[in-house]
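Step 1: inspect the first sequence and its tokens.
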Amino acid sequence: MIGEYSMDELRKMHPQRNTFNFGRITITSDFDSGNLSRCEEGDEDGCVSSIWMMLVQYNLWISTDSLPYFKNCGFRTWFYFGVRGTLKEEVLRFTVKNMNHQSKLYASGLRPVYRLGTTAKWRRQQGKISWTVSDY
């Protein structure tokens, strides 16, 4: 119970607040402004930057921007989630499968931001950002 609501009642009121567990790795949007509706572990392993590293792929689906207030607006222009349980040697790759067309933003040099830990400063993603338009 949180206040007068059970966790099930809160989940129904805020369907974009979810937690997904993959062994020791947890991906969560269970906080204010979090917006993951679905997350699956992908199937890519491989070589990154010519050095063999552990690469883990995750496919993400984000909720519409206005959930829980307007369920059918259709806009998906941002994402916000947290990750716990990673190892220093791991490389994580996230693919957002249902984001609205944002290639002009990325082509203009805008980049997602991230931080490591709760006290670190926010940093812009370095390296190549890739995108494709599909009918997901």
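Step 2: inspect the second sequence and its tokens, then contrast the two.
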Amino acid sequence: MVPGPDDHDCGWKQRALELEDKLAVVVGQLEALNRQVFGKKSEKMPPMDREVRKKRPPDPAVTQERRRKNAELRATRVVTNDVQHAVPADQRRCPYCESSKLKPVGQGKESFVWDYVRGISVGSAMSVRRSPAPAASTS
């Protein structure tokens, strides 16, 4: 917006000049805040886990031992059920020659299926059997 010719001096002109000065100050503050918030930072802190690893390099022997212990612990906690899936006798035929004289080939393919079984906490409950209260005698 272009101001008109400056041929008079009134109260509105003074007010407009004051507001221009305030706007210039606010725009300067906004630019400074934008630089501070969105600008590049020169002081970056590295993540703590990386710093800890730098100070204490991992020992391969200790790592292997820890992995072995964890694997043994995991193996003792896992309950396994071995299920043999045999082909039913009526389906043991060659699809080409219909021969039923088949023999096993190899040891078979082992596969694993992991099922999560939620742990259940079972507590014991006890009670005392009370005999019925004696009837009140009316004498």
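Step 3: confirm your contrast with the notes below.
The mean pLDDT is 80. The chain is about 40% helix and 0% strand.
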